[in-house]
Amino acid sequence: MLQVPTRYLHGPGPSPVPPSVLNALSQPCIGHMDPVFMQIMNEVRQMMQKVFQTENEMTLACSGTGSAGAEMLVDNLVEPGDVCLVGINGVFGGRLTDKAKRAGGTVHNMNADWGQVFSQDAIIAEVERLRPKIVIFVHAETSTGVCQPFDRLAEAVHAHDGLLVMDCVTSFAGLPVKIDPWGIDAAYSGTQKCLSCPPGLSPVTLSERAMHKVRNRKSTVNSWYLDLNLVGNYWTGNRAYHHTAPINMNYALHEALRLVLEEGLEPRFVRHRRVHEMLKAELEKRGFSYASDPQNSLPMLNLVNIPAGVENEAGIRKRLLDEFNLEIGGGLGTLAGKCWRIGLMGHGAREENLRLILDALDQVLA
Questions:
Q1: pLDDT value at 236 more than 90
Q2: With the C-alpha atoms ordered 191, 194, 197, 199, is the resulting torsion angle positive or negative?
Q3: Residue 103 banded pLDDT, cuts 50, 70, 90
Q4: Which CATH class for the 19-261 domain?
Q5: Where are the domains of the chain?
Q6: Are strands 58-63 and 201-206 parallel, antiparallel or unpaired?
Q7: Is the pLDDT score of 158 beyond 90?
Q8: What is the CATH number of domain 8-12+265-365?
Q9: 347 phi and psi, to 5 degrees?
Q10: For position 330, what pLDDT does the model report?
Q11: Dihedral angle sign, alpha carbons of residues 187, 193, 195, 201
Q12: Which whole-number Å values give the CA distances from 94 to 65, 183, 359, in the listed order?
């Protein structure tokens, strides 16, 4: 029989999964066209709308991880020749650039140092210059621990008939993601971060403006599997069969969303911020410094410089895993070997988890 160790997941994801979410996974599998499952889908959509803070009818759980959600939005919204503006201040902006190019977009990049955000004034100026059809920025850059402000961008993007797209994989259910108030046209996330659900689904939402473009494309969507003209009917239209949905993963997402709304969005955001501030204070006492912009740092993903004197950072992370069952993340891209990423996400953003992290670090660094 398969035996898997219990790990304390405090890297960049996945995050600790509550027992009730794991229990939901074990419920009986039923058919993907079963009326009971259709009702579960309805409830999942309604709960996602509350967390996204939107009334978008086209809100669904894309079958696949957050990367599938990114590909769904890019493949549906970018047509060959569309001018796209994509911000790169970490790994995931680079991946979005690649996706937009593969979809045939004419991609222009804005670049910022890793660990820094973009000035909204600078983004607006570039939008005025390029008049792009698609503008894509990462709200919570998992590789660098920074949170990109979005609240002032939509007016400029919409003035030139563009669409504003957000990657909120790491922020969803841990920070405010205000789709309607901020005028976001499309956004995607993942289940394995602040939702504290196993990886496998990507919450996605699109405005009616975005769906108008999807329905009136001049070219066919490149991906059949991710074509919202098809899969959208399974979630919000006439329930036409498209693919066999991951049924039990939707059970798990249903329970994870229920827990989020039971706690309340604002109390949940406050909890993430409070535990982050406690961790930051304790790490700084121990000589750690943060590598991300202090004015725009994520509470759920702490990017810290590796302390002076640590010559084998991978060896330290291996000891944490082997001796304490504690997972923290190494740096990605230009930050590899220079930084650690310590996650406090969802069910893991608790004081008892904080103490476990600090005790383990104290012992291996002693």
A1: no
A2: positive
A3: very high
A4: alpha beta
A5: 8-12+265-365, 19-261
A6: antiparallel
A7: yes
A8: 3.90.1150.10
A9: -60, -20
A10: 97
A11: positive
A12: 18, 24, 36
